[in-house]
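Lab meeting notes turned into a lecture example. A postdoc, R.K., suggested we walk through two folding results consecutively so the class can see how the record format repeats. The first protein's sequence and structure tokens come next.
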Amino acid sequence: MIEKIPFMHRGKTYNIIIEDDIPFTALHSVMDDLISQGAFSAGEGCAELYKVTHEGMCYIIGIDGNDVIISVK
């Protein structure tokens, strides 16, 4: 079941949309990586895809504003 979860990271709130479970440590690491890539600077309506690897797991992530759609590959 796909869930939309409000998630606070570094003082900002994001909407995490994910079908699978992801550990909080992995989610924080993924969010840090996305921030360092400038993923949230484009703004809403400018969806972008990113690929992030954390502890051997590959995540494909769509960013649209503060919505973060995560797929585990």
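The second example is placed directly after the first for contrast:
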Amino acid sequence: MEKLLEPNKDNCVNPKSPLNTFNKISKDGMKILCSKECPCSGNPQIFQDDPKYVVIDLANGDDKDCVSSAGKTCLYVHYKLDMYNA
């Protein structure tokens, strides 16, 4: 079990590893919590240089629809919501 808990990309995709379950829950949660209906609060600048994410800041009135694909994840954020700054 200890080997299956080592944080590496093989364990994150290995169905026998608990990290695989955690990885799936995290990805599924991000789709819900950073959606247009339930935007993340925080600083969208954290993701600005990461090509894996498309950041849509609802605080700027950016209300476009985004479709996640295999290489990109859409993150709806509301920068001023609760004023969490990272």
